[in-house]
Design goal:
- Strand 5 and strand 6 form a beta hairpin.
- By secondary structure, the protein is mostly beta strands.
- The protein is globular and about 45 Å long.
- The protein has a five-stranded antiparallel sheet with strand order 6-5-4-7-8. A three-stranded antiparallel sheet has the order 2-1-3, with helices on one face.
- The chain starts with a helix and ends in a 5-residue tail after the last strand.
């Protein structure tokens, strides 16, 4: 029996998801996620949003950038459930999705709180945060109810 499996059986609520790899350009993003805040990067010149964070705007090549709060709302653009090999750090196969955020950028994450078979293109979702090993948090997306 593997170490991860035996830890999962012993403590079912203990996080087993791996912590994010923090790069200097994205440190602000992961620090905010640990506080359950969803931040993005916006160009200081052309004001376009970009993800992943990087030093230069891919549109106007400006080095000016701002860290700004994102709405956390979006829609599912596409999704997949990788089955083989089993995803390390997950108790069951995750749903990996590309989320189109209201700000116009696409963000790769997991969709939780809905059966894989019930996900549809355009499904409205909202960001949430889940704990990882090492007491960090990562953004995931869950279905949201549309206001009528």
């Amino acid at each position: 029996m593997s170490t991860v499996a035996s830890e999962t059986e012993a403590k079912p609520n203990k996080p087993i998801r791996l912590a994010p790899i923090v790069t200097p350009d994205a440190k602000f993003f992961w620090d905010a996620a640990d506080q359950e805040q969803f931040l993005g990067q916006q160009c200081g010149s052309c004001e376009r949003f970009r993800f992943p964070p990087r030093p230069m705007c891919p549109h106007c090549h400006s080095l000016e950038r701002r860290e700004v709060p994102l709405s956390g709302r979006g829609t599912v653009y596409t999704w997949i459930r990788p089955l083989h090999p089993p995803a390390y750090g997950f108790r069951e196969p995750p749903t990996v999705a590309v989320i189109e955020l209201e700000e116009g950028i696409r963000f790769v994450s997991n969709v939780e709180g809905i059966a894989f078979e019930d996900i549809t293109a355009g499904l409205p979702v909202q960001v949430a945060f889940v704990e990882t090993v090492g007491h960090h948090k990562v953004p995931v997306f869950r279905p949201r109810e549309e206001k009528r």
